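Bug #77: duplicate submission created two jobs. Keeping one. Sequence:
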Amino acid sequence: MGFKLTRSQFELAKFTLYLMIPISIMYYVGIDTDKKLDVPGFWPDPDTLNKVPKEKYQIQAELARMRAAKVEKRKRLEEKARELGITPESVNKKDDE
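Kept job's structure:
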């Protein structure tokens, strides 16, 4: 006497298989990913990343640093423009023509 599989049992087995295979793969990949999928040096070291200032004095210090960098960049660009002979007057003359 053999085991006879009806159509409804077969469809139920297919459904179970189709449902469990992706869940099993996600479960396998999702557990202990630090060891299975570890690529040394992939993520940057947290010490080298930018830190968002949270305290008021940190925010003020960061704003002061940004302003100083902006002023320094402007001075550097103005100096370079002077070396190239670009002046506000020469720019205005070209606009008038």
